[in-house]
Amino acid sequence: MSFTEHRLELIRDLLRQQQRVHVKDLVDQFNVSQESIRRDLRELETQGFARRVYGGAVLDRQESDQPFAERLRVGAREKARIGEAAAALVKDGMKIFVDEGTTALACLKHLEIRKDLTIVSNSLAVAAHFYYSSPPSVRVLGGRLRPDYQATFGPETVAAMKEHFFDLAIIAISAVHAERGFMDYGEDEAIIRRVARAQAKRSVIVADGSKFGRLGSIHTFGLHDVDGVITGCTLTKDFSEQFLKSNVEIIYV
């Protein structure tokens, strides 16, 4: 990791802790020029992580650092339509993976009527959803619990995932960039999504319109590496042409 990348990660940590950072304080802390800090803040804004304000920057509360309950409410109507379309791909007797992303979780209520269905997930919300209903077979993967995601991550989770093979993986994503592909803001999420894709016969990305055109901080996989994309927005030409060229099915809702 370069010095600049390390500094960006430290600034992200400060934003998570304090919600706001000031250029002058960062200059003093890192012993670099104001222009270097301003470039850092521009980069974080481009990534969708921060929003520049007079004298510094504030945490972008539209992104993945929101509390879990708040993320569920953001874009709820579009996510509901996406979730219904994703559930339509699930047939009786399948074994599927649903990740911890709130857009992926939107499919759950539509899966209650499926017969002989097995759902594997790292999300505690999946287990909670089916607690009071007649559930399919649900397997929640062990690992290191992250309360901010209500999900498990880490080597134990990955090892458990690799023991399963899925007919379908329903995968949420933090950002989609025309040049850099599908991206996330944290390594934990990116690793889970890569393994889910590798273990599935078919993988489908579920992403609301706010995710397209954004930059994350970690490359998860390429635009050509999945079988389908479900979204509620009309994709721009740079995305639609790449998906068409790679035979990635686009499902609009």
What does this protein look like?
By secondary structure, the protein is α/β, with parallel strands linked by helices. It folds into two domains: 3-59, Arc Repressor Mutant, subunit A (Orthogonal Bundle), CATH 1.10.10; 68-252, 3-Layer(aba) Sandwich (Rossmann fold). Helix content is 37%, strand content 23%. The chain has ten helices and 15 strands. The strands form four sheets. Strands 6-5-4-9-12-14-15 form a seven-stranded parallel β-sheet. A three-stranded antiparallel β-sheet has the order 1-3-2. Helix 6 links the parallel strand 4 and strand 5 (118-121). Helix 2 (23-30) packs across helix 3. The longest helix is centred in the first third of the chain and has 16 residues, at 3-18. The radius of gyration is 19 Å and the shape is globular. The model has no long low-confidence stretch (mean pLDDT 90).
Topology:
Elements: H1 3-18, E1 20-22, H2 23-30, H3 34-46, E2 50-53, E3 56-59, H4 68-73, H5 76-87, E4 95-98, H6 102-105, E5 118-121, H7 124-129, E6 137-140, E7 144-146, E8 151-153, H8 155-161, E9 168-172, E10 175-177, E11 181-184, H9 187-198, E12 203-206, E13 218-221, E14 228-231, H10 237-245, E15 249-252
Parallel strand pairs: 4-5, 4-9, 5-6, 9-12, 12-14, 14-15
Antiparallel strand pairs: 1-3, 2-3, 7-8, 10-11, 11-13
Helix pairs in contact: 2-3
